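Figure 6 in text form: structure in, sequence out.
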């Protein structure tokens, strides 16, 4: 009976060793069945060897010492990787105790609670009637004058600066405030003035985060789980949310209400445009400035003069007025250049006839006394020497 029990004990130990060594390949140890249940846990190579030795009977040993050393470099790398601590999960950046944060460009933002009044007072808006003043009605009487109200040489000289300020930014908001104009628009999250704590897109649905700085507010609203909309405003001193399911802030609501005007203007500009293909960004901005100035000039011209005119007719007449002033200046320069030329060519040289009334590119040596053009003999009148075009 004792022999049978000893053999059973040896078989039990062998079964234990077989279980553990079969699982060492994947570093996963399956414990023997206990009460008809299997337990599984992740163990390192050293822990598995120690567990095996702790359950082996010392009487079965051959007397040699067992060293727990890895057999290969792969086991050593597995051992070192298992013993390393797992990386900590990334947490959302928190503001300091004073609730302020500095952006990459040096802008200091302060996180505010929704519904609280911010520490600045927005400027008063202009009257909503949109009618031109009495001074504008008296001074604007032509299409060219209305057009020059929206585009000047100073704007063209500083076109490189305006290309940088075309998109909504904090610097643009400050420049417009210096001209008593507010701004409300969307901001790209990659801009340097956006605080780091507001760049996270993994937000809860319908949540709002508010930041404030000098004369401007930034609203971060999440309409979806992984989508965030950033609104920069210089006209709101209080950010409030609606009492609805989506809990939209008032900046988002006003932006959605007024952005249709920009879409309509873009549609009207594309209908009659001077834009053409170009690879130069300042030229593309210049074309856009011309289109918007012509559209606004049409509205201002009708409001100041009281005349109703189709936009296509207004643009054609405006083009003629612009070309007329240019052609008159060019003609005056040409006449001045002709007067500075000598009355006769240099000795031994002749000039081509500039009248070409009855000749075919004949050469002449005498000029008309009125228009100072070189005139061939058959293209002149009798006396004085005058071309047939001049009377």
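Output sequence:
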């Amino acid at each position: 009976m004792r022999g049978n029990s000893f053999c059973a004990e040896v078989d039990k130990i062998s079964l234990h060793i077989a279980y553990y060594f079969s699982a060492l390949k994947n570093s996963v140890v399956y414990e023997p069945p206990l009460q008809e249940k299997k337990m599984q846990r992740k163990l390192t190579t050293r822990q598995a060897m120690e567990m095996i030795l702790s359950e082996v009977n010392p009487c079965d040993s051959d007397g040699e010492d067992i060293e727990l050393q890895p057999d290969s470099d792969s086991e050593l790398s597995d051992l070192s990787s298992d013993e390393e601590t797992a990386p900590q999960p990334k947490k959302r950046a928190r503001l300091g105790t004073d609730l302020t944060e500095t952006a990459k460009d040096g802008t200091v933002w302060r996180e505010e609670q929704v519904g609280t009044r911010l520490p600045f007072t927005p400027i008063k808006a202009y009257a909503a009637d949109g009618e031109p003043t009495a001074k504008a009605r008296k001074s604007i009487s032509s299409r060219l004058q209305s057009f020059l109200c929206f585009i000047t040489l100073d704007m063209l000289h500083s076109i490189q600066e305006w290309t940088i300020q075309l998109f909504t930014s904090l610097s643009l908001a400050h420049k417009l405030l210096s001209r008593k104009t507010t701004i409300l628009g969307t901001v790209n999250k990659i801009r340097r003035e956006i605080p780091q704590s507001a760049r996270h897109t993994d937000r809860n649905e319908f949540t709002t985060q508010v930041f404030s700085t000098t004369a401007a507010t930034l609203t971060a609203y999440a309409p979806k789980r992984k989508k965030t909309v950033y609104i920069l405003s210089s006209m709101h001193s209080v950010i409030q949310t609606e009492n609805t399911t989506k809990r939209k802030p008032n900046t988002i609501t006003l932006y959605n209400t007024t952005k249709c005007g920009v879409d309509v203007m873009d549609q009207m500009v594309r209908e009659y445009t001077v834009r053409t293909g170009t690879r130069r960004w300042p030229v593309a901005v210049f074309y856009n400035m011309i289109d918007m100035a012509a559209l606004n000039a049409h509205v201002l011209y009708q409001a100041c003069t009281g005349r109703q005119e189709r936009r296509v007719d207004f643009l054609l007449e405006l083009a003629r007025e612009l070309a007329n002033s240019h052609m008159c200046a060019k003609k005056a320069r040409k006449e001045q250049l002709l007067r500075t030329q000598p009355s006769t060519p240099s000795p031994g040289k002749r000039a081509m006839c500039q009248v070409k009334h009855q000749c075919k590119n004949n050469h002449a040596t005498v000029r008309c006394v009125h228009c100072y053009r070189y005139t061939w003999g058959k293209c002149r009148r009798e006396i004085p020497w005058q071309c047939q075009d001049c009377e």
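Caption detail: The radius of gyration is 43 Å.
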